[in-house]
Specification:
Elements lengths: L2 E9 L5 E10 L4 E5 L6 H8 L7 E6 L2 E2 L5 H5 L2 E4 L12 H11 L4 H14 L15 H13 L5 E5 L7 H16 L3 E5 L3 H7 L2 E6 L2 E7 H6 L2
Parallel strand pairs: 3-8, 3-9, 6-7, 7-8
Antiparallel strand pairs: 1-2, 1-4, 4-5, 9-10
The protein binds adenosine-5'-diphosphate (2 copies).
Amino acid sequence: MIVRIDSLTFRYPNGTTALDGVSFSVEAGERVAILGANGAGKSTLARHLVGIERPASGTIEIDGRRTDGLGIAELARTVGFVFQNPDDQLHAASVVKEVGFGPRNLRFPPARRTELVESALRRTGLNELRDTHPHHLSLGERKRVALASVLAMDTPVVVLDEPTTGQDHASVVLLGNLVDDLATDGRTVLAITHDMDFCAEHFDRVIVLENGGISWDGPVAHWLAQV
Ligand code: ADP
Ligand code: ADP
């Protein structure tokens, strides 16, 4: 199991219980859609996977290691997180610099770095925009830059927060193919999404959060058959 979450509970300082005894495991290469109404706890769960939040109780294991012993930098080698709002994660003056930042930071050797950056630009359809400043891109394009910069870090787990929001049809098709390719490569994709078509076409499994707990977990086909 690449991800193993056991009895994860989390409260915000104001007392809101955002996660309440959440347990599930994910196999390498699985494509998992995380659904649920606003306030269900989806973002809080994603923030735990990347170590932005730490459990109040319960444990998270990624690739066989408990995350409470890992720093953010170490976790970043294992889990990539694409924020819902790309402007939370874009800093560089050009697309290619932005995408190259992660691999440099993780100290991949130069040849490997080039390979990862070029592959990420190609897979996200950004090659033509490589020298453009992210400020001059549309929201949909900036979201693809954020995704490319995470892909370039070559993490075994990729977490996406609302990847299709603000994307045109062609970009959604590209994103879907990308999710499929990642899984074929044995990488694991967890995506928070409200996009049912995207979920039905490109995911294996659905986990529904409700009031901080899991109300449904199973194969996407079973889920579609009962909604
Ligand atoms: P979702 O992503 O499913 O919309 P969230 O994880 O954002 O849900 O929120 C889960 C619960 O935690 C909600 O009740 C929300 O209002 C609350 N919450 C989220 N962030 C904070 C915060 N920073 N401080 C206090 N409560 C929060
Ligand atoms: P999402 O759409 O991803 O669930 P939200 O729009 O609910 O995110 O929240 C946006 C930001 O506000 C997040 O940083 C979240 O942690 C914070 N937040 C959400 N609910 C609350 C809350 N009740 N109190 C304080 N902060 C909150």
